[in-house]
Amino acid sequence: MRLSIKNISKEYAGGKLALRNISLEQQNGILGLLGPNGAGKSSLMRILATITQPTAGSVHWEGIDILKNPNALRRVLGYLPQDFGVYPNLSPQEFLTYLAAIKGMSGRATRQRIEALLEEVNLTEVRHQPIRTFSGGMRQRIGIAQVLLNDPRLIIMDEPTVGLDPEERVRFRNLLSQLSGERLVILSSHIVSDIETIASSIAIINGGSLLQHNYPHEILQGVEGKVYEALLEEAELKDFASRQQIIHTMRRQGGWMARYLNASGLPAHSTETPVRATLEDAYLWQVSHKAKASAYV
Ligand SMILES: Nc1ncnc2c1ncn2[C@@H]1O[C@H](COP(=O)(O)OP(=O)(O)OP(=O)(O)O)[C@@H](O)[C@H]1O
């Protein structure tokens, strides 16, 4: 499987530039699209799912230009949009049977497939209940099941973990890990922990631009040895924050524990302690501080 995105830009009516000259290549595996709200993740995914066209650039799937020949990709695509709608009066079983029919699937094998999928997303017990009685997380699980109906080669899921509780998230991650193999899975999130354990590569997007596309360990390497914590007094915090790239702060008795990036080689505070860098540090470094930080790195 091979997806090749070249110089994609998207400008919406009204002049909003949602994507700026994005290029990336991806083969089998799980690509995590990471970026804050409004970064352009959905815009990129809608283009890849052939729902919208870019303003400029090209997308090739297995060497085929999907902007000119979208059906080649649609046949092997499973897509979960962010605003996935379900028919409230249908049960999960009826809904999946209906979608399968639309995709031209029927018969015993399809019934077995639906049964197995309902089991995978933990909806077997409620498979005959109307969807209108379901929580957001349960509806999202139906959305995940419908993506997998036709055993797709390219799976695109826009914020699939929204509404899932911690247990469901783990289950979903396990399901995805089992799925990969001869497939390309693209999923977006603004939550690092949803992606870091399963993604074979991560693309960080902000303001419509691709900041980085790399293996998780390579992204992590960018901040390794630069993350510290220090205990600050209340009165120090404002001045410290103006000088340092703070990742986050936590209240402590009599002050604040600040986690920050320091690439200067000089201690930024008398209580400075090095800590192990995480992918979240690297992500926050990229999306919120890179421009400022690059001035002294
Ligand atoms: N149909 C549209 N018309 C005009 N502007 C749009 C349209 N769709 C998205 N945008 C704008 O394009 C930018 C990128 O939006 P997009 O939905 O792709 O981001 P995102 O990273 O998916 O964010 P979120 O997680 O909040 O959905 C935003 O500023 C958004 O307001």
TrEMBL record:
Task: Provide this UniProt record's keywords sorted from A to Z.
Answer: ATP-binding, Nucleotide-binding, Transport
This entry's Gene Ontology molecular function terms read:
ATP binding; ATP hydrolysis activity
Q: Where is the ABC transporter domain?
A: 3-232
Reply yes or no: does the keyword RNA-binding apply.
no
| Stored Gene3D superfamilies | P-loop containing nucleotide triphosphate hydrolases (3.40.50.300)
Q: Which InterPro entries match?
A: AAA+_ATPase, ABC_transporter-like_ATP-bd, ABC_transporter-like_CS, P-loop_NTPase
Output the PANTHER family linked to this UniProt entry: ABC TRANSPORTER, ATP-BINDING PROTEIN
Please identify the protein, giving its name as recorded: Putative ABC transporter ATP-binding protein YbhF
Q: Identify the gene encoding this protein.
A: ybhF_1
